[in-house]
């Protein structure tokens, strides 16, 4: 059963909070340290597998643009699945985007991260 209540950041699992904090400041080294060795990251249809590939992806994704990131929502799906919605504003095409970061956790690490347009 999905819980659609918005959660403040401090109620998210530490792994999710710290991954996002590093990701927002484009610290791919720290962000990727929260990924499982066999992690799968999907962003707008592109899939990378393994911590090493994910690190390169996190380092390079969006690097050609300037943007700000603001968490606008979060909810718990179940003990292992969490969704954080962020709003990006910047120099990319369209200038504004709302994205869902769908986390699947395993052993306090991110096993899967799917980044997709926010579904209202």
TrEMBL record:
SnoaL-like domain sequence ranges: 16-103
Top-level lineage group: Bacteria
InterPro entries per the UniProt record, alphabetical: NTF2-like_dom_sf, SnoaL-like
Protein name (Swiss-Prot/TrEMBL): Nuclear transport factor 2 family protein
Organism: Streptomyces tauricus
């Amino acid at each position: 059963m999905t819980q659609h209540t918005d959660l403040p950041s401090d109620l998210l699992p530490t792994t999710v909070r710290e991954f996002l904090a590093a990701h927002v400041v484009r610290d791919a080294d720290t962000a990727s340290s929260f990924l499982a060795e066999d992690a799968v990251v999907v962003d707008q249809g592109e899939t990378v597998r393994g911590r090493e590939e994910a690190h390169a992806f996190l380092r390079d994704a969006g690097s050609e643009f300037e943007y700000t990131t603001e968490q606008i929502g979060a909810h718990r799906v179940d003990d292992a699945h969490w969704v954080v919605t962020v709003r990006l504003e910047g120099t990319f095409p369209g200038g504004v985007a709302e994205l869902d970061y769908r986390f699947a956790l395993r052993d306090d690490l991110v096993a899967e991260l799917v980044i997709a347009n926010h579904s209202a």
